[in-house]
Specification:
The protein is of the alpha/beta class. The chain has three domains: 316 residues, Rossmann fold (3-Layer(aba) Sandwich), CATH 3.40.50; 140 residues, Rossmann fold (3-Layer(aba) Sandwich); 126 residues, ANL, C-terminal domain (GMP Synthetase, Chain A, domain 3), CATH 3.30.300. The chain is built from 20 helices and 30 strands. The chain is globular, with a radius of gyration of 24 Å. Bound molecules: 5'-O-[(S)-butoxy(hydroxy)phosphoryl]adenosine (WT7).
Length: 654
């Protein structure tokens, strides 16, 4: 397949960082950035070795990188513990009584942990895990809301070398079960319930449902969050507060190899089965530490807020590990941005005098809809830097963010990266890079990116192609959990000798990168990755469905939305009731985030002669585009006409 994505975006505005910002920034000019970047890619081992030496190692690495394509080992021979760097390292400094974590609950409660306090809680929980028989290498699954115990649990696992696998609290019992089983987790931690827009979400009940099919789980640790009534199994369940109550607050950080797996995080790919992205300890630590510092120009005095959920990689890297490794103050908010009012985020910024704010384009588009009168009610003058992540930011949203949140004073860093990359890969340096709305600009120091054609050759400037990374980087995934072959196939087989994870992009005359979207069967809904195959197989598993095809359709708010073409079994008629049933089915099997926004019933799906569903065609139909593409291999042309007619008459089914 050739890449026929042509960039329709021609944004010409350029925004220079202010001289006041640049003067104080870690990287002060383009010349400085260019010099650092050049050295970093010419001598990556020297470059990353120096950064690693800013952190604590129980034993110094003997070799910065051992590269056996496609497997990288970073800081080989080095022994460390990421929690030593996130906590202990600060306790002998003035940071010991500095706020590490400022947490705000959705109902308005607040908890603040200094570095010492956080250290104590992490040690107690780590000792609690040990008392349950958790050992180095055992997997622990966390299915929790955005409460401090989630950060404490992650760090507690890392403290004893037990890789964590966090499952976003919006996922269903079914999805939780699959992830627990794939990782073979021994322990699952959840809460009684979580708060979401004032409603209680039954995480414990979901966990119970999942655990009916999880033979490897020995214990379920439960945090009391809402105090709601929950089902209980005396043999298996244990309250968090009972577990930690009598534990010692001393738990030495286990010395682990740099290459010891820190965590697994499941993400969608182009098959039905989520991929268990596995990250290392040392490389991930160095990569997130460094990028958090330079991309967000993080300073001792900053209060930094990333609004992601820790259930996604953004929260792992830039709420917990990156900021704490830097000794920063990280804000964590439990709830929805419009609870109890549309200005909740701005209220939090005013309340804690947040200096650096990192959110997603889909959130910014929601803020735009709600109107600028909400941010205007609050004092946002503490802000000095804004960030964006998850999908390409459309220039309108960029300008709104710049105007109404940044008051035309704050640089915006549009950061491109992925679950697999672990750290930010392409982003402006806020004190150096002139920004263009919609472009994530240039690779960060230490990262070499390129745009290539199918043969792996660089394309001419301005042409679209596959975005690849040409050199290993420290926070790169180690492999897919227990599936080296799938790791090779997914990332290292399409473009020879280069890392490719599915995005198309182009560069402009300044060498800036413009991400154009995914080229594989992966959707980006509100900055969250969903596999089309995954949703299809769920829909097809419904007793009334014969066949289904899922594609993305453009959506003003969520970027993309799920559109499902469904063929029902013979004798079953489309109806509102079936639409409801199918949506509920997807909610149950994956979670509401994968729920189709639009369902189109059809007697047949367009297929090639070899029987492959023509997804590209369906995508144009879902998006109301002309279907004049190459349809010469289409099996039955009548199908296409019927479908187009349908799509144009179908009302949005939500
Ligand atoms: C995919 C990765 C990394 C945290 C959030 C998502 C898209 C991410 C940007 C950006 C354009 C972006 C890409 C990427 N994406 N950031 N700044 N500009 N696209 O993590 O779920 O692993 O998804 O999100 O398509 O491949 P993820």
């Amino acid at each position: 397949m050739t890449i026929d994505i042509e960039s329709k975006l021609k944004e010409t505005r350029v925004f220079e960082p202010s001289p006041e910002f640049s003067k104080k920034a870690h990287i002060k000019s383009m010349a400085e950035y260019e010099a650092i970047w050049k050295r970093s890619v010419e001598n990556p081992e020297e470059f990353w070795g120096e950064i690693a030496s800013e952190l604590h190692w129980f034993e110094q690495p003997k070799k910065v990188l051992v590269w056996d394509e496609p497997f990288a080992q970073w800081f080989v021979g080095g022994k460390t513990n990421i929690t030593y760097n996130c906590l202990d390292r600060h306790l002998t400094t003035a940071r010991k009584n500095k706020a590490a974590l400022i947490w705000e609950g959705e109902p308005g409660d607040q908890r603040i942990f200094t570095y010492q306090q956080l250290h104590r809680e992490v040690c107690k929980f780590a000792n609690g895990l040990k008392s349950l028989g958790v050992k180095m290498g055992d997997r622990v699954c966390l299915y929790m809301p955005m409460i401090p115990e989630l950060a404490i649990a992650m760090l507690g696992c890392a403290r004893i070398g037990a890789p964590h696998s966090i499952v976003f609290g919006g996922f269903s019992a079914e999805a939780l079960k699959d992830r627990i089983n794939d990782a073979g987790a021994k322990i699952v931690v959840c809460s009684d319930e979580s708060w979401r827009r004032g409603k209680q979400i039954p995480l414990k009940a979901n966990t119970d449902e999942a655990l009916k099919g999880c033979p490897t789980i020995e214990k379920n640790i439960v945090v009391k969050r809402t105090g709601g009534k929950v089902p209980w199994n005396d043999k298996r369940d244990i309250w968090w507060h009972d577990l930690v109550k009598d534990q010692s607050s001393v738990c030495e950080a286990t010395s682990v190899d740099s290459t010891h797996p820190l965590f697994i995080l499941y993400t969608s790919g182009s098959t039905g089965k989520p991929k268990g992205v596995q990250h290392s300890t040392g490389g991930y630590m160095v990569g997130t530490y460094y990028t958090n510092k330079i991309v967000f120009d993080l300073k001792e005095e900053d209060t930094y807020w990333c609004t992601a959920d820790i259930g996604w990689v953004t929260g792992h890297s830039y709420i917990v590990y990156g900021p704490l490794a830097n000794g920063a103050t990280s804000v964590m908010y439990e709830g929805a941005p419009n609870q109890p009012h549309d200005g909740r985020f701005w209220e939090i910024i005013e309340k804690y005098k947040v200096n650096i704010f990192y959110t997603a384009p889909t959130a910014i588009r929601a803020f735009m809809r709600w109107g600028e009168q909400h941010p205007q009610k609050f004092d946002l003058s503490s802000l000095r830097l804004l960030g964006s992540v998850g999908e390409p930011i459309n220039p309108e949203a960029w300008i709104w963010y710049h105007t109404f949140i940044g008051h035309e004073r704050c640089p915006i860093v549009d950061t491109w990266w992925q679950t697999e990359t672990g750290m930010i890969m392409i982003s402006p340096m806020p004190g150096a890079t002139p920004t263009k709305p919609g472009s994530c600009t240039r690779p960060v120091p230490g990262v070499a990116a390129e745009i290539v054609n199918e043969a792996g050759e660089p394309v001419p400037l301005g042409s679209g192609g596959r975005l690849v990374i040409t050199k290993p980087w420290p926070a790169m995934l180690q492999t897919l959990y227990k599936d080296d072959q799938r790791y090779r196939d997914a990332y290292w087989s399409q473009v020879p000798h280069k890392y490719y994870a599915g995005d198309s992009a182009r560069t402009d005359e300044l060498g800036y990168f413009w991400i154009m979207g995914r080229l594989d069967d992966v959707l980006n809904v509100s900055g969250h990755r969903l596999g089309t195959m995954e949703i299809e197989s769920v829909i097809v598993s419904h007793e009334k469905v014969a066949e289904a095809a899922v594609v993305g359709m453009k959506d003003d708010l969520t970027g993309e939305a799920v559109c499902a073409f469904v063929t029902l079994k013979r004798g079953i008629e489309p109806s509102d009731a079936i639409i409801k049933e199918l949506k509920a089915h997807v909610d149950k099997e994956i979670g509401a985030l994968a729920r189709p926004k639009k369902l189109i019933f059809t007697d047949a799906l367009p297929k090639t002669r070899s029987g492959k569903i023509m997804r590209r065609l369906l995508k144009s139909i879902a998006n109301g585009e002309v279907t004049s593409g190459d349809t010469s291999t289409l099996e039955d042309h009548g199908v296409l006409k019927n479908l187009s007619d349908l799509a144009s008459t179908e009302d949005d089914a939500t």
